[in-house]
Specification:
314 residues
Length: 314
């Protein structure tokens, strides 16, 4: 669920002038393929963490990747762009909806159709793999609509906005992958690790708000950098990113997965070494940290999954 550079609290349901039927390329642009990687990665970490043989479930694992990435995440992008279209018409007029390439109410229809397809695909996977896929998908869609659509518009909050994105991108995707691979409710250690990484993702999402501080203040968006200032927001983001990873290290060690715990600890130590540079200039260095520290955190997810599973089982 993408966060726009500038946003308003409400967007009237006015149609957008443009062609009657949008082109496939414009619809694909609306669904933002670049945003699909994080939930797919978390889904695959969930698959691995279940520790179950993968060969028998491989078709449903592939369908799960489609579900969490192009379908659910893509739908969330369409929802977001529809409700941000008036602001995007000013700030990013080249986007598919404000440019008129996706005109009328096609943006809303794509969001609604995507929601229906998400539930249908989840039901198909659930029929053969795990019944838990349907409630996880339904909750992800509820979060997507609540994030972007009035009256909730959770994206207006520096607390709830990043939190709901982190929960869906990391937690629900990981949960879905583990449920599909295991064919059942994920184990308690898996649930604990995915919850910890979901919390940590709140800090990662906060990094995206440093690029829009002035716009958020002008539009009344209560992001952490806009409300408490960039330096204090950077401190909070770093703590929120690091503390859950420390929890993962301790949990892995307590479970006897010492090698995985040691590797995750090393990746965390590398992030801690990078964080002072981020805090010194959060606005200028947030993209740099996303390309360095965040990547280390993402690698830690895979290491933790492998530790929980004791390796990959075919």
């Amino acid at each position: 669920m993408a966060r726009s550079t500038q946003r308003t609290a409400f967007a009237p349901l006015s149609p957008i002038p443009g062609r009657a039927v949008p082109k496939a390329g414009d619809v694909l642009e609306l669904l933002k393929p670049i945003t699909w990687f994080p939930p797919i990665w978390a889904f695959l970490c969930g698959v691995i963490s279940a520790g179950a043989p993968l060969r028998a479930q491989l078709p449903f694992i592939l369908l799960g990747m489609v579900l969490t990435g192009p379908v659910v995440c893509g739908t969330s992008q369409a929802i977001n762009d529809w409700f941000d279209r008036d602001v995007d018409a000013i700030n990013e007029p080249g986007r598919p909806i404000p440019s008129g390439r996706i005109g009328g109410r096609w943006g809303l229809w794509i969001a609604l159709i995507g929601s229906a397809v998400s539930l249908a695909l989840a039901a198909l996977i659930a029929a053969f793999a795990s019944r838990w896929v349907v409630p996880a998908t339904a909750l992800a869609l509820i979060c997507a609509w609540a994030y972007s659509a009035p009256p909730a518009r959770l994206k207006l909050s520096g607390l709830w906005g990043p939190g709901v994105v982190g929960f869906t991108y990391e937690g629900l995707s990981w949960f879905t992958g583990a449920a599909v691979a295991a064919g059942a409710m994920p184990s308690a250690p898996v649930l604990a690790v995915l919850l910890l990484y979901s919390i940590g993702a709140h800090g990662i999402m906060t990094l995206n708000d440093f690029k829009a501080i002035e716009g958020d203040r002008a539009c009344g968006i209560r992001s952490l950098p806009a409300t408490i200032g960039p330096v204090r927001a950077a401190w909070i983001a770093c703590i929120v990113m690091a503390a859950p990873q420390l929890g993962v290290v301790l949990l892995l060690a307590a479970l006897g997965h010492l090698l995985a715990a040691l590797v995750v600890a090393g990746l965390l130590a590398a992030q801690l070494a990078l964080m002072p540079k981020l805090i010194a200039n959060p606005v200028g260095r947030a993209p740099w940290y996303n390309a360095t520290g965040t990547v280390l955190s993402v690698l830690g997810m895979l290491v933790a999954a492998l530790g929980l599973a004791g390796g990959v089982h075919w």
